[in-house]
Every structure is written in C-alpha cells, then in structure tokens.
Amino acid sequence: MTDLSKLAVAVVCSSNMNRSMEAHNFLAKKGFNVRSYGTGERVKLPGMAFDKPNVYEFGTKYEDIYRDLESKDKEFYTQNGLLHMLDRNRRIKKCPERFQDTKEQFDIIVTVEERVYDLVVLHMESMESVDNRPVHVLNVDVVDNAEDALMGAFVITDMINMMAKSTDLDNDIDELIQEFEERRKRVILHSVLFY
C-alpha cells in the first residue's frame, strides 16, 4: 500500500483532546487519511482544582472550549498547557468527536490506553454486522500528558508507516506487530473485528 491516503486510520483516546489529537496531527502531516475520537461520556479537562474538572459535551467546538478556559483564567490555563493544546486542536478539526457516534469505517483503529481499547472493542462487538470488512484495533499505551503525547504520536506514526508499506495487511499484521514490539520495546494489544 504505497498511497497513504487509502489506509483509513482512527486514533482514539478518552476525550479527543491530547493523545489522539497529537497523533492525528502527526499522521495527517504525513499524508494519512486519519480521524480522531474519544470514548468517554463527556470531554474532561483539568480544572483549577483536582476535583473540579472542566466538563464539555462531545461536539462542543475547540474554539468555544478555548474561549471558556481563557475567560475563566487565561494565565492558569496558559501555564498548564491547555490553551496551547486547544489552539493546536482547533487548527486540525472543529470539535471533539465520540467514537461510539461515528458511522465511518477504518482499516486500523489505534487506542492509547487499555481502558479505551476495551471500550472500542466492546462497541465494535455490539454493532450490527454490515459487510464483514475487517478492522485491526491496536493499543499503544501513551501517558496522558503533553510530553508523552508527543512521543506517543511519533511511535504511533512509526507503527502506521510500517503497516502502510504492507501489500496484504490482514496477512502481515501479526509479523509487523512482533517486529514493532521488539524494535520499540512495547507491548501492542491487537484484535481483529468486523464491520
């Protein structure tokens, strides 16, 4: 597969804010056909107090979240990096999207933590079968902070680049995952599900 835009890729985290958006950004710049999502009930961002997160509905524009946090305390949310993150996000797409609400089909879905992986697999298994098209769901653990999200985006892009070179992904994927795990010293969860 040499045409990167033919491989449909989704990257999924909990709130479609940090890890999935950093990887979305990297993959899009490399020419991949990529979308990003969250699996949570709502979008949650750190607040001024640990027990008081900022909570938004999926579909709330990144621009509106940016303005809301800016009006609450511009200095605080600049220092903790949220305004920078939201600025990046609003240049990539309009708003956070929930994975369970999409009707799109993908060749590869990458999650960034086991809990999100489990939710994606559960959702896919609960769907009515459409055309038995396979989808590979992979998990690459990425800690939810700016630095690790950046490193995770490099790792995910590296893995997707490897897979994009395959002429028969369904047949080659186990070998590709093993090679990737050995080279990157990471454990990758993998399920094959069907649309």
Strand order of the largest sheet: 2-1-5-6-7
Secondary structure category:
alpha/beta
Low-confidence stretches: none
Number of domains: 2
- The termini sit apart by 21 Å
Structure description:
- The protein has two domains: about 10-40 and about 100-195, Rossmann fold (3-Layer(aba) Sandwich), CATH 3.40.50.2300; about 40-90, no CATH class.
- A hairpin with a 2-residue loop joins β3 (about 45-50) and β4.
- It contains six helices and seven strands.
- With about 200 residues, the protein is an alpha/beta fold.
- Helix content is about 45%, strand content about 20%.
- The chain has a five-stranded mixed beta sheet with strand order 2-1-5-6-7, with helices on both faces.
- The relative contact order is 0.18.
Could you give the topology of this structure?
Blueprint: E1 8-13, H1 19-29, E2 33-38, E3 43-49, E4 52-56, H2 62-79, H3 82-92, E5 108-111, H4 114-126, E6 134-139, H5 146-164, H6 169-184, E7 189-194
Parallel strand pairs: 1-2, 1-5, 5-6
Antiparallel strand pairs: 3-4, 6-7
Helix pairs in contact: 1-5, 2-3, 5-6
